[in-house]
Design brief:
21% strand, globular, Jelly Rolls, binds ligand 6CS, seven-stranded antiparallel sheet
Length: 299
């Protein structure tokens, strides 16, 4: 009997033609409303808006520990020279450091913290593993923007993530003001998937992590989305966190103020949604961007 490799069915085709918008084909909340830290109302809001906020997830001492670690890493020339460290184009200041849940004890601990993982399990309705982690610095004066995009569109096209059954958390390590480049989300946009135009260049991540090109929706689609969904600006004090669906349309402006906007960003993917081969890219991205260790957190 011949076994046929399971067809890679592409439910979310992108970077294969013109821009078009299709409906999301997966439920947003896949877990139970009566088992887990999130109550029915919070889950309902997450389903509708695509995100939820957690006030003061980390307290003063933990926050200071993270900030000290953030500074130590940014000043370590060895870390700066690694491939998983991305620097700002003009200033050469550190923009992001990836894979911190695997390489750093301080951030490994928070990535496995039940206060986060239990929320992710409940939203995704399964055990979860960590797809990606990063610290974003967005330094004062020179922190550049992250243009509008859906993370899932990139993870589908370039990492082979089949469905949008992943959730990210952004933990603020500095105060997020309206003026220093806070996260912006179009609430409700996660229920629509933008099939982007264009093709994924070879080694796209070497460029996209500084300024994303492939996968960014066209201005007309973004304008229609902004008119339809509005734009929420996620201001809030350091220590707070935002959990958002992998397909939310989101962005953040550059930072010309003296006040950095730093955060820890961790992505939890369902163990029932593990990576296949890239759906629209010449080859896989490095594992510091897309882990292929699907071991469930906490096992
Ligand atoms: O390419 C990625 O995986 C990363 N890019 C952005 C702008 N957000 C998600 C993710 O960290
Ligand atoms: Fe993103």
């Amino acid at each position: 009997m011949t076994t046929i490799a399971p067809e890679m069915v592409d439910l979310y085709p992108t970077r294969q033609g013109e821009n078009r918008v299709i409906p999301r084909q997966d439920d947003v909340v896949q877990g139970p409303t009566d088992k887990g830290p999130l109550d029915h109302q919070t889950l309902e809001s997450f389903d509708q808006r695509g995100y939820l906020t957690i006030d003061q997830l980390i307290d003063g001492d933990e926050l200071q520990l993270f900030r000290n670690e953030l500074r130590r890493l940014a000043e370590d020339p060895q870390v700066k020279a690694e491939r998983r460290t991305v620097v700002e184009a003009a200033s050469n200041e550190v923009r992001s450091i990836f894979d911190i849940h695997k390489t750093n004890d301080v951030f490994r601990k928070i990535a496995h913290d039940p206060r986060i993982v239990d929320r992710a399990r409940q939203i995704l309705g399964s055990e979860v593993y960590i797809h990606q982690s990063r610290i974003n610095y967005k330094p004062g004066f020179v922190g550049k923007e992250f243009t509008w995009h859906s993370d899932f569109e990139t993870w589908h096209a370039e990492d082979g993530m089949p469905r949008p059954r992943a959730v990210s958390i952004s933990i603020s390590l500095t105060d997020n003001y309206s003026f220093n480049g806070p996260l912006m989300i179009m609430p409700g946009s996660h229920k629509h998937y933008v099939c982007a135009a264009g093709k994924t260049p070879e080694n796209n991540h070497e460029q996209s992590l500084i300024m994303q090109g492939a996968g960014v929706p066209d201005p007309q689609t973004l304008a229609e989305f902004a008119d339809r969904f509005g734009i929420d600006v996620l201001e809030g004090p350091a220590g707070g966190a935002i959990m958002f669906d992998s397909n939310c349309m989101h962005a953040s402006n550059g930072n010309v103020t003296p006040y950095p906007r730093s955060n820890v960003f961790i992505v939890y993917n369902s163990v029932e949604n593990t990576l296949e081969e890239p759906f629209a890219a010449p080859k896989r991205r490095p594992e510091f961007l897309a882990s292929r260790d699907f071991t469930p957190v906490g096992s």
